[in-house]
Amino acid sequence: MLQLTTTPHDLGPDFLQDQHGTFALLRETGPVREILTPQGQRMWMVTRYQEAREALTDPALSKDIHTARARFDPYTLALAGLDIGGALSEHLLNSDPPEHTRLRRHIGRAFTSRRVRELRPRIEQVAATLLDDLAALGEADLLSVYAFPLPITIICDLLGVPKEDQDDFRSWSTSMARLDSEQAGAAAMALAGYLGQLVAAKRAAPGDDLLSDLVTAGDNPLNDREMLAMAFLLLVAGHETTVNLIGNAVLALHRNPEQRDLLRARPDLLPGAVEEFLRYDGPITLATVRFALRGTEVGGVPIPEGDFVLVSLAGANRDEDRFPHAEDLRVDQDATGHLAFGHGAHHCVGAPLARLEAEIAIGALLARFPDLTVVGDPAQLRWRGAMLLHGLETLPVRI
């Protein structure tokens, strides 16, 4: 058993602007460290690779929302980010096997590698259209005109969300990702109302889309609450990761021009480069919170029953013991095994789609605008105020 520092590490309000520096410091002090979140809540944080894999598969660390509601008061749950949206919280990421297995089975068929490959022509078409828009502007926020509309268009196509509703959805999703719990709660209520109406519409008049397939499934179908939570998770997770992945990758290439030039000269490196972007500065900072059903250990560190645990995917992906030269971006190295999409039963079901969207989006951008540059001082760019997600507020570019 490891000897622990008794004082929790205070992440502080500026943590999100230098998360990699914080995780490097925490890795030096040990694999697991008690921390204070920006909201002042004590939790355990895992920042080393091997211990992160252990924690992500430890059955003593639960994500089940029903058990959490029985154990913790609503205020504590809200601070931990477990129950921000009531019924919206009853989804895959807040469940354990066998319930998680049942829920995941319903959507697994939609995100197989074969079905995702079939989306390539549509993704390429959307990317080309958006790049035409960028060309007409000359200078713009790359997130607004490219990184956001591409994945939101694709996931809304898959789910059957009308195009005219996509702007509202973006506003709600952005608000829910921020640290302001009041703003996030209001956005969650608005999104829940919208999704309830959308699910009802699909039940009344099914179409050729994933939500319609889910509501008409004859074998052990989802109930209304499960449908609502599933729709929420698919919409939010189905675009937020890709938006951040594209934006973070473009910024990383701008800061590492020799890697950008290599990727332009060797487009065959793109699939592997996407894995490196995921490892180096991935779209998700932390896995969603877990809590100890009983006392357990992670990396020799005792975790008392009832304590909350955060696994730093970003921290694990820069662990030098697993990835030599982890602080460097190298688009031609083997980055497989990274934890950007999690590990174990909760590995992201939409990972094949996010990978394909990023490969097409980044490749098309480099080919179309080889001289694209980030406007202003990259050091002045701000990261969004979201504990779990890692993405920029804006990314101004000039072609």
UniProtKB/TrEMBL annotation:
Q: Which PROSITE patterns match?
A: CYTOCHROME_P450 (PS00086)
> Any coiled-coil ranges, and where?
none
Tell me the GO molecular function terms: heme binding; iron ion binding; monooxygenase activity; oxidoreductase activity, acting on paired donors, with incorporation or reduction of molecular oxygen
What are the record keywords, sorted? Heme, Iron, Metal-binding, Monooxygenase, Oxidoreductase
**Signal sequence span per UniProt?**
none
Pfam families per UniProt: p450
- What family name appears in the similarity comment? Belongs to the cytochrome P450 family.
Name of the featured protein: Cytochrome P450
Species source reads Acrocarpospora corrugata
